[in-house]
Amino acid sequence: MKLRNTYTSAAGSVVLATIVATSLATADAATTAEAPANPELIELLSGVDYVPPENDLLAVATEQEIIDIAVDINGDTGRRIRAYRALGHFRSPETKTLLINEMVAHANDSTGIETLYCRAAMSALADVATENDADAVLAIATRLDHASRDVRVAAAQALAKIGSQIALAPLYQRLEIENVTQVQLAISDAIRRLLGVTSE
Question: pTM for the full model?
Answer without folding.
Answer: 0.77
